Amino acid sequence: MRKLKNSELERISVENFKSSNKTPIVVVLDNVRSALNVGSAFRTSDAFRIEKVYLCGITSAPPNKEIRKSALGSTKSVEWEKIDNTDDAILQLKKQGYTICSVEQVENSTLLHHFSLTGKPIAVVFGNEVNGVQQSVIDNSDYCIEIPQIGTKHSLNISVSIGVVLWDLYNKITG
After folding, report:
1. Once rounded to an integer, what is the mean pLDDT over residues 10-18?
2. Quick count: other Cβ atoms within 10 Å of Cβ 143?
3. Homologous superfamily of 21-174 in CATH?
4. How far apart are CA 54 and CA 117, in angstroms?
């Protein structure tokens, strides 16, 4: 095996990305504290051609040095919007026909590998690194998805959670 050069990866341009068909998923960041995690969310969203990233509450927005550091330019390709209140973003997305899926450990959560697609576009909510997704957002969610974990911490970094969930949903959508 030979490692591929960047020139061999057939990456699309930012312009082609913006005009391409997107995976029918949006990412909602609910009061995410770390700008590095926000940048990672952009980079992962670019990898799966996610429609849009919503930056809610205290979540940092571009331009930001730490976002730029981990996003590696993906803030230019992935559409994003800053909204002061996560509940407002959720209500807006519901009106647009999105199924709201918070990634959180709650009573009667659906394990990620058991989650079935509804046929509607999906808004996936990821919460604050300490407090998780706000209860008011959970109350307005159609589903709460949980990533199964068998270790002692029962906690993943938000950037890892975003990667795991988007990979799973992308595979379910593209079959």
Report:
1. 94
2. 19
3. SPOUT methyltransferase, trefoil knot domain (3.40.1280.10)
4. 21
Q: What is the pLDDT of residues 98-136, one digit of tens each?
A: 999 999 999 999 999 999 998 999 999 999 999 999 999
Is 168 buried (19+), middle (13-18) or exposed (0-12) by CB count in 10 A?
middle
User: Taking the model in full, what pTM does it have?
Assistant: 0.96
